[in-house]
Amino acid sequence: MISKLAVRLTNYLYSEGTISAEDKELYQYGFFLLFSRIMFLLVTMFVGLAANVFWESLLFYVMFSVLRGYAGGVHASSEFACDTLSTGTFIVSVICIRIMKSLKCVPLALIMTAVGCFIIHWLSPMDTNAKPLSKAEFKHYRKVCSILTILYFLLEVVFIVLSIYNFLYAVSVSILLETVLLFTGYLKKTQIRN
Questions:
Q1: H-helix or E-strand containing 141?
Q2: pTM confidence score
Q3: How far apart are CA 113 and CA 173, in angstroms?
């Protein structure tokens, strides 16, 4: 669905002479990413609004998206699987934030973050066969992931000091989700090698 929209918009821009034939594939990919992110943001915000954690869900989505962009992780085998699994994952993540908020799970959030940061540092960045990373890119992405995990952890400390626990849960769940995606990708790569 999203790829068809990206193709239509790209073809329209090409037919109008706005883009060249060489750039069509790049524009299709860019539009696909843009539309996907908008769709997932809207789903996350809608569920967050329904669960009474709107701002927390927005923070979660931003924090996760930034970390995911550098850390990588497992990818679905088709667009339909990606859309379905991502939508479900974002819904479950927002529900987790709501549950943690209700139960006041500060120690659990800190444990999740500490373990998650360690695993992210250990496994990131994770490239794909479709988009392998060069040695320079790998080194750069690893450095960015390390900086991000440190910043996320420090942000959680600030939230604790200021007693803004709701946002603490959002950051923890973003780290947990990226940890799960990285670890799943690691298991998938290990299984393929064997």
A1: helix 135-161
A2: 0.90
A3: 8
